[in-house]
Design brief:
Strand content: 15-25%
CATH architecture of the largest domain: 3-Layer(aba) Sandwich
CATH class of the largest domain: Alpha Beta
Number of strands: 11
Radius of gyration: 25 Å
Largest sheet: 7 strands, parallel
Distance between the termini: 75 Å
CATH superfamily of the largest domain: SPOUT methyltransferase, trefoil knot domain
Helix content: 25-40%
Strand order of the largest sheet: 7-6-5-10-8-11-9
CATH topology of the largest domain: Alpha/beta knot
Number of domains: 2
Order of helices and strands: EHEHEHEEHEHEHEEEHEH
Structural class: alpha/beta
Shape: elongated
């Protein structure tokens, strides 16, 4: 049975307005949100403005879900005329619950497909790449990716094991660099270095006991700069597969550097002498 209208006007404030005249806060539905507990192993979780906005601007990315606070969604709409995925509005604590209260997510959490990794054979003949030998700290790797992007590195080569996934903390630390510096993932690092040498790459390993300062070594393309983990440094077989071992000479009393800082100094020292690629 259909209820007849009484013809009376609805009493009270208009829709969307409080009784005191202030606008109502927008309500958020949680029904459209699904648990993301296993997403770190399935695709990539990207949070923070730079990581998310660079991913959204990358035509090679595919997307699953985008969670955004009202302010963040408004900011996205001001930058992107056509977002590739519609955001689901949430409160900030909804994102906190997924990435941790200490994560600086800036109101954005994007679940995207992982970018495809390259192979050694995909590298151009005049490439300049970084090789990471079991650097496992995602903060360090992310910082290295960000610096590599700034210095125009063509790719980063890592192993499938003993390397952090390109998601979460690493992606946030990379500050959007993941969208511009592709990864080459290999099973055996020593074998990959051998292949690089056979393809004409000059493989320079950074080692505190290197025979020569990096600044004194002639550099050319194609070039692979090899970095080892903090404390352990380069593994023995990795050292043997490098064409030359070089050290960073610093004038201060503290000679040891964080690996991401060492990468930045080495990249500056190399790129200032390397020249632009031919293509």
């Amino acid at each position: 049975m259909t209820e007849k209208s009484s013809g009376k006007q609805r009493k009270g404030p208009p829709h969307g307005v409080r009784a005191d005249g202030r606008p109502r806060r927008a309500s958020f539905s949680r029904k459209s949100l699904r648990p993301l507990e296993n997403d770190a192993e399935d695709g990539a979780l990207l949070y923070g403005w730079h990581a998310v906005s660079e991913a959204l601007a990358n035509p090679r990315r595919a997307f699953r879900t985008l969670l955004a606070t009202e302010n963040a969604a408004r900011r996205l709409s001001e930058v992107f005329h056509n977002l590739p995925i519609a955001p689901t509005l949430v409160r900030p604590d909804e994102i906190d619950r997924r990435v941790g209260a200490d994560a600086v997510h800036q109101g954005l959490l994007l679940h995207a497909e992982s970018l495809p990794a390259l192979t050694v054979e995909d590298l151009a003949r005049d490439s300049f790449i970084l090789v990471l030998d079991q650097i496992t700290d995602p903060h360090n790797v992310g910082a290295i990716v960000r610096t590599a992007c700034a210095f125009g590195v063509d790719a980063i080569l890592t192993t499938a094991r003993h390397s952090p996934a390109a998601t979460g903390v690493l992606a946030k630390s990379a500050s959007g660099g993941l969208e511009h510096v592709p990864f080459v993932t290999v099973r055996n690092l020593a074998g990959a270095l051998q292949t690089l040498s056979e393809r004409g790459f000059l493989c320079i390993g950074l080692d505190s006991e290197g025979a020569e300062p990096l600044a004194d070594i002639p550099v050319r393309r194609p070039l692979a700069l090899v970095l080892g983990a903090e404390g352990k440094g380069l593994r023995q077989l990795t050292r043997e597969r490098c064409n030359v071992l070089a050290r960073l000479d610093v004038p201060g009393k503290i000679k040891s550097l964080n690996v991401s800082n060492a990468a930045a100094i080495a990249l500056y020292a190399v790129t200032s002498r390397l020249g632009a690629p031919t293509a």
